[in-house]
């Protein structure tokens, strides 16, 4: 292969990778990690690390996130609050006080919700679960405090960590380099005092905060889709199933028949962990009704704080939604045709593993625009569907339940 051919292949790969990471419905979605130095110690500093999920509909589900990096020098972690390193590493050179972790490449995980109060800080200890920004902005963050040693005691001697990684169930995240930014301002719980990250080694105080941005790519997470859509309607007895092999083809070694409780995927023709079914229940002159059902075929995974995004031109006139919470995804746009759905807390915000309880559903009532095309030509079916931020495989338009000539408005 010639040099020019290698160049073309490389450019094609780069362009495809970037396009796979771009989401037209959530162009600014990312995980932003901020590292704020709040005080200095004799051999290092104490920092608050905050992770914000700015993705509108992609949550970080159980068992949660793992944050990693590579120390620039020979830093150690003396202590942590709100999180912990998974491995202490070799701390044999220390006598007396032993660091929390001496790993060159530490891996940090969140603490569980029942953690003792004196080991917590604000926004920690949720088992690594972070809600999406569109669902609950107040729960779309996670934080911990870290005391770093052998790091230098001024902003001129501290070296920023490198090679940040953010790992979540399903993978797919790529992190950029750490960059120094303006310091974060912290507001006390009573709202009466503001502090900010700073250095006390010099006067005037020198501030130190850096930021890392991690973006998601479905292609990096998995070349195969993870969900599919099936369709049906009251006016047609046939059901349009998920396309065969939507998420891979069936093999006896990677699935089991229904009812066999093993930690693998249930055998289906589509082989997707999640199936979203859209059923048109009825059609009237002014309103029409839809039932949405989400089914989990994964024997080894509970989807915590799941989200469902549906694009349909009539979703801007949803008048009633049962069981699920409904939010317009882009409420400020005149052509708001995309809706965000998620479960109600402690009722159906966890989609259980495959089995009798492995599904959740909702009924929608939508007001019709008299100028729209009733049920003809597939108008009643969604254009795009996302589950937990990943696009679902849609049936072809030709396979949608057709409208018989005798069918009309009720």
Name a few traits of the molecule:
single chain; 410 residues; mainly beta; Immunoglobulin-like; 2 domains; seven-stranded antiparallel sheet; six-stranded mixed sheet; 2 helices; 28 strands; 36% strand; elongated; disordered N terminus; disordered C terminus; COBRA_pln
Blueprint of the fold:
Blueprint: H1 3-21, E1 31-41, E2 44-53, E3 66-70, E4 76-81, E5 83-85, E6 107-110, E7 141-149, E8 162-167, E9 173-175, E10 179-181, E11 185-187, E12 194-196, E13 209-216, H2 218-221, E14 227-233, E15 236-240, E16 255-256, E17 265-266, E18 274-283, E19 287-296, E20 303-304, E21 307-311, E22 318-321, E23 324-328, E24 338-343, E25 350-351, E26 359-367, E27 384-387, E28 390-391
3D architecture notes:
The structure is a single chain. The chain has 410 residues and is mainly β. It folds into two domains: 23-219, Sandwich (Immunoglobulin-like); 224-399, Immunoglobulin-like (Sandwich). Helix content is 6%, strand content 36%. It is built from two helices and 28 strands. The protein has helices at 3-21, 218-221, and strands at residues 31-41, 44-53, 66-70, 76-81, 83-85, 107-110, 141-149, 162-167, 173-175, 179-181, 185-187, 194-196, 209-216, 227-233, 236-240, 255-256, 265-266, 274-283, 287-296, 303-304, 307-311, 318-321, 324-328, 338-343, 350-351, 359-367, 384-387, 390-391. The strands form seven sheets. Strands 1, 2, 4, 7, 9, 10 and 13 form a seven-stranded antiparallel beta sheet that branches. Strands 15-14-18-19-26-22 form a six-stranded mixed beta sheet, with no helix packed on it. Strands 23-24-21-27-28 form a five-stranded antiparallel beta sheet, with no helix packed on it. Strand 1 and strand 2 (44-53) form a beta hairpin. The longest helix has 19 residues, at 3-21.
């Amino acid at each position: 292969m010639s040099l020019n051919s290698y160049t073309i292949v490389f450019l094609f790969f780069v362009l495809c990778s970037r396009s796979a990471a771009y989401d037209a419905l959530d162009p600014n979605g990312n995980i932003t990690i901020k590292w704020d130095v709040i005080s200095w110690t004799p051999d290092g500093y104490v920092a608050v690390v905050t992770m914000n999920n700015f993705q509108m509909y992609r949550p970080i589900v159980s068992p949660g996130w793992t944050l990693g990096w590579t120390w620039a020098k020979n830093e150690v972690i003396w202590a942590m609050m709100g999180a912990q390193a998974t491995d202490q590493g070799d701390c044999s050179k220390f006598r007396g006080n032993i660091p929390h972790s001496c790993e060159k490449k530490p891996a940090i995980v969140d603490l569980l919700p029942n953690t003792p109060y004196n080991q917590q800080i604000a926004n920690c200890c949720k088992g690594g679960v972070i809600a999406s920004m569109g669902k609950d902005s107040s729960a779309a963050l996670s934080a911990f405090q870290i005391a770093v040693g052998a790091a230098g005691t001024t902003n001129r001697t501290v070296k920023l960590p490198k090679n940040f990684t953010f790992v979540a169930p399903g993978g797919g995240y790529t992190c950029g380099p750490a960059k120094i930014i303006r310091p974060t301002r912290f507001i006390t719980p009573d709202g009466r005092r503001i502090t900010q990250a700073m250095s006390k080694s010099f006067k005037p105080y020198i501030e130190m905060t850096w930021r890392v941005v991690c973006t998601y790519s479905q292609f990096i997470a998995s070349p195969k889709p993870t969900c599919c859509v099936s369709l049906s309607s009251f006016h047609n007895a046939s059901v349009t199933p998920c396309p065969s092999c939507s998420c891979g083809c069936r093999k006896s070694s990677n699935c089991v028949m229904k009812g066999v409780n093993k930690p693998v995927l249930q055998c289906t023709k589509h082989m997707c962990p999640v199936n979203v079914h859209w059923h048109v229940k009825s059609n009237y002159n002014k309103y029409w009704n839809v039932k949405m059902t989400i089914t989990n075929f994964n024997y080894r995974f509970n989807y915590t704080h799941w989200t469902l995004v549906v694009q349909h031109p009539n979703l801007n006139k949803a008048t009633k939604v049962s069981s699920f919470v409904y939010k317009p995804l882009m409420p400020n746009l005149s052509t708001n045709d995309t809706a965000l759905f998620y479960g109600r807390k402690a009722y159906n915000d966890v989609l259980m593993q495959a089995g009798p309880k492995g599904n959740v559903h909702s009924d929608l009532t939508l007001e019709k625009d008299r100028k729209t095309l009733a049920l003809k030509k597939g108008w009643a079916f969604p254009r795009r569907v996302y589950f937990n931020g990943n696009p679902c495989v849609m049936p072809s338009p030709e396979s949608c339940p057709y409208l018989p000539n005798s069918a009309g408005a009720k």
